[in-house]
User: What shape does this take?
Amino acid sequence: MRTTRATEMSRFGILALAMFAVACAPSAPKGSQKAGGGATSDVAIAAMKTYVAPGDLDEYYMFSSGGHSGQIYVYGVPSMRHLSTIPVYTPYPATGYGFDDESKKMLGDLTWGDVHHPSLSETNGDYDGRWLFVNEMNGRLARIDLRDFKTKQIIGPIPNVSGNHASAFVTPNTEYSVMASRFSIPIPKGTVAGVDKYATDYKGVITGIKIDPKSGEMAFGWQILMPPFDYDLGDAGKKASDGFVFFTSYNTEKATGKLEVTSTQKDRDYIAMVDWRLAEKSAAEGKGKMIGGVKVLDPKEIPGLVYFLPCGKSPHGVDVAPEGKWIVGSGKLQGVTTVFNMEKIQTAIKNKNFTGDEDGIPVLKYEDIKDAEVAVGLGPLHTQFGPDNWAYTSLFVDSAIAKWKLGTWEVVDKAPMSYSIGHLTAAEGDTVNPDGKYLVGLNKLSHGRHLSVGPSQPESSQLVDISEEKMKLIYDAFTEPEPHYAQIIKADKLHPIEVYTKEENKHPMAIWDVKDAGVTRNGNKVLVKMVAVRSTLTPTDFEVKAGDEVTIAITNIEQTTDELHGFGLLDYNINIVVDPGETKTVTFKAKKSGVFPFYCTNFCSALHQEMQGYFIVR
Ligand code: RUQ
Ligand code: CUA
Assistant: This one.
């Protein structure tokens, strides 16, 4: 823990102050009475637990999904302070993302993406602090490097996947990040069949994206053809269930139209259990057939590749408990969550206790494979874990969190959430070794409790203390949309850099001396090598001819923390930001002639305002 003695003292100071307020103030401020729904002393304790004194650091990072903003938001826990925004699928002018050649190329033609489920890289089932993978509904997956908090690679759109929702869950040693399609379509993409042919001509698809253990580089691994259900969420098995990935599915009715009616006819939907090692092996042996330019495995032809576990209808989350033996799946229209037992699943498979099949995929018998139905409350969505077999399930309909115990199946506590809760995330909650301590409810709807900002209300993420027997709401944070999911990692697992060293900068156009800055021409191509250092952009002016193709390569030669420089070029929609030691390029056609000022956009020194120049097009 990074808390200093000073924090402890200041925390006691706060407590003393709050106590004093109770004793002496004629009436405590209204807000302090309301928060937490308890007495003022609870508020004081909550303040003490969430207050991170000036200069002190949070104990955890929380990486939160930005939904259709296309971004990841980074918060400190327990302060819940917003620390950073990592642009992934959407241009972000604040960091110049999506404006330079390098990030523009990564984004391609798509300028938005719907980010859902961040997944931290793991070693032996523990977050290892190397990378963060995030999925996006257009069939893509991105890797963020946690050394510099930057998006390094975007893979996809992956062929045949439509609506990459059930993603980006990583396997225990980050061998794969898996994805499954939310929407079934006729494949390959571009094939047309009316919705009346849904049950026969539409297909779901599960994909494994292979991850290089050294570089994190993502590559297509394998793909599995699935019945036309809607695959929703997933989790990778670990320890007792290592080698498998689990996905919930809804609309196993294979219905179309008004799904809220047509897809909720059957009592049970399924969890698909996929043997990813067998998928890997089968693909390596050359099994499968080409669809949409990739090899697709058919479970009919590969026994043991996929099984269906019947589950409460319309399930959302499926979550593997830390030891891997228990798999928790919740039907979101029910009042119970089901706990499946991996040993029972394996026994049932061995004994071929199947009730039938779906497109050749064996269906196991619900009664044979479950250990318990836990009466958590209405609308269970997603479960997180703490130490000592504690489990926490979010209840959308009840708008609460239920705390219960794996093994005894006892529900011991419920904490109301002020805005209907979707997912929840616990400190190190998806690992083999969860921390407990903190839980964040990622809420969906807003009913006040903050200054109103018009019809589009902020999202709310509520911090819950889970270090004691009773859960306690200790902080209301208002976060950026749309917090579908988040993960919380111990801060000391990350070792971010503050500058790129000269040795690390491998950009072919990097220059480190102002003397090397200048303009070279090759036909109608003009290359401008520029140096940015306090407080000049060199060359300070340069000329091209109308119609030239101009590439500006800017190296920020600073080696000092937070000495960023920017390059804003008016009238040309150019906005580049270079971190200390970084090189970026931007290529464009000099279409308009005239005199165009450029300037540094990041405040960098007392003479920042003087950091300017002219781009002249004749
Ligand atoms: S999801 S809450 Cu991807 Cu559950 Cu949205
Ligand atoms: Cu460089 Cu402002």
